Structure formats: structure tokens, C-alpha cells
Amino acid sequence: MAFWIGALALFGLLACWLWRRAASGQHKQGPMEEEEEEQGGCHGRADFAVGDCQLICKPSALAQALLKSFRRCPDLEARCWAWKSWPNLQTAAQLLWPPAQALEFARDHLELADGGLVALDWVVGPWEPGSRRATSPGKAATVLLVVPNATGRLTRAVHQLCQMALQQGHWPVIFNRRGHNGCPLTNLRLQPFGQPADLKEAVAYIRSRHPATLLFAVSEGSGSGLLLSYLGECGSSSSLRGAACISPVLKCRDWLEGGIPWLYEQSLLLLQKRDISRYRKALREAVDMERVLRCGSLQEFEEALFCPQERGPATTWEAYWEHNDPLRDADKVAVPVLCLCSADDPIRGPPRDTLPWELFRSSPYFFLLLTPQGGHCGFLRKGSSPPSSSWGNAVALEYLRTLAKFFRSEERLCRRSSRVQHRRR
To answer: What predicted TM-score, i.e. pTM, was given to this entire model?
Structure first.
């Protein structure tokens, strides 16, 4: 009896708190409105309202096509429900809660030029009961390269993304870094935060297997640093036609140097230490493993692994980020990139300090879809019982569908124009 009385009291307090929050929200500015005031408003800028979200980008024909598509997306409508106001719960539900269904993989181990190995997991199931396969994986309309976060963990959101993509006719393939998700570490070289050499070889392999298929990419959280590094370094020769980054960490050095709340940082650090400890004996020749396992922050962990002072050539922290900053070659990116970010992201931090606003307003290839709620990789749908599926995945796939449609339309116009010019000659 006492349990039910306590539960009822807790429910009453929660309802009262939510009511007061909703009432005060009518008189206070949201985080995106405060950002507009600090930036001097959006006069002369391409900031478009999409429900209660904002699409921030440079004006273009593609931007208009995306705006039209997003405004038809029901997940971006301004709707209020309890979980939207709890970013930490949304984050924990997607990052910690186990997936509803395990994915079925067909794994390829790819040997790299230096003798290392990465793993490519081609998703072949499961299929929803009663669903009809519109295409076999080998004849899919597009191949979707999925880059998990920097810890390599396949979260609930990644599982949902791959299964949703499979049902829509894509063929998802997950990129696993050296030593991640059962991929063996065959040499003493680990992959730095923003070094895209391994991803380059993986994309070249995928392209050789499917030369005539559209290739898109989606990344999650801190894994976006690797994808953006690849796009900037390769430029127009990236082989990708478009990319989407869900809750990306864009100012990575600032993030590692103190931009992560303590509880999240220690959780991520524990996962990193657990994975690296499996190769403790083998890596002693290359790095000081005692120092690595004693680290108390992610910055110390990254420095101990990739900026050794005792073994090998000495590398400073500044020199490391000159070659690993994901946005170091952002001006060379030549494919459309959508960044889906939440203003209440508890891991990335407040938008005004953690998002490169000028990049989205000046580059024709970068698009920022900023939502008021969603947490970090959360974006939970309103469902009967939490945690429900992520509407962020649905928006990312809708973006890729719009891109493919836009490219087909542009190609038809080019062919028609060339025929007219030929006739005139």
C-alpha cells in the first residue's frame, strides 16, 4: 500500500513539474530563439521553419527541395509530450537500452594496405512479419554505409536505422574499425579519431562490388568525425552521393578538452578502456598501456594512445588535431551533408558553443536541421511504452530519398538540355 501511495505522490509531483514547465515555456524563449538573438536575428539568412525545428543552410535548389520534403514529414511537426522534455532519458534509452531485434549480418573482413583489418557487416535481416521484399540485397537501389560512434558500439538507434533502411529498399553495411565488434587487431596500429585512410579503402571496396549503385552514408554521434574527415579529404572523388550525420560532434577538440559532462565522459572512457584492454599485451610495444588504463578523462586517453612521448615519434596534442580535426577540410566537401542536431543534446553541449554556424550559412553542401528536443541520438517517437523508435532515423532516410529524387531530376534535365543543343547544332 505504501508503495502505491509513494508512486501516486511521485506521479503527482511529475505532473505538476511538467505543467509548470509547459506554462513557463509560453513566456520564455526556447534555446533556438535565444541563439537567433545572440547571432543578431536571421535577417538575410536562409533559416527556414519546419514545424518546431529550423533548417539552416545556404539558399539553393536543393535546399528548397529539402524544405518541401521536411515540411511534409509528420515527425517534424510541433507536438508536445512528456519524453520530449527529458533529453537525458532519451539519450539513455537509445544508447543503453538493448535493441528489440538483433540484426542479421554477412561479414566481410577487408585487409588493408598496412596489414590491418576492418570489418564490413552487410545487413540481411530481420524482415518485419508480413513485409514483402521489394528487392534482393544484391539489387538494392542504394547501398547505405553506416558509421557507428567512436566506441564502435552498435546502439539501439543503429539497429533501428539499419532495419528501417532495409525495409525501404536500401542495403545497409556497417563499418567496423580495427579491433571493434569482434574485428581482430592484426597489427600495432589503431585508428585515430579523424584519420579516414581505413574508411577510404572500405569505400573503394564497396564501390568495386557495386559500381552502378548509389552510395550514401549515415553516421551516429562521435562517428561523424570520421565521416566528415573522409568527405573533406576526398572532396569530389569520395564516391558518395550524400551523407547524414545524426547528433554529430563537430568541434571535437573542444569537446574532448572539457565539453563532456562528467558522467557521460566516464561512461565513454570505461567503454574505451574495456575494448583496448583486450589487446593490452600486444600494444605494449607501441604505447604505454599502464598510462592508457590510468587515464581519468577522454583527452588523456586520446593523448596516451596517439601522442606518445616515450615510444615512437613524439607527437604534440596540437599537431595531432591539425591532422585529425573533422572540419579541417570542410571547404573541400563536394556532396550534400545533413546534420541533425538537438538543441538539448546533453553530450554535445549547447548549440551556440558547439555548432559551426558560419559553415552552414556559407557552404552549399552543409545543411543543419536543428530540433528543440531530442537528446543525443534520441529523437524518440511518441509511443505506448518507452523506449520507442527514433524519428531521427526516419528523417535521415527521408533526406536521402529526397537527394536521390533530386539527382534523378537533375540528370533528366541535363539529358534534355544536351538533346536540345544537339538538335540546334
So the answer is: 0.85
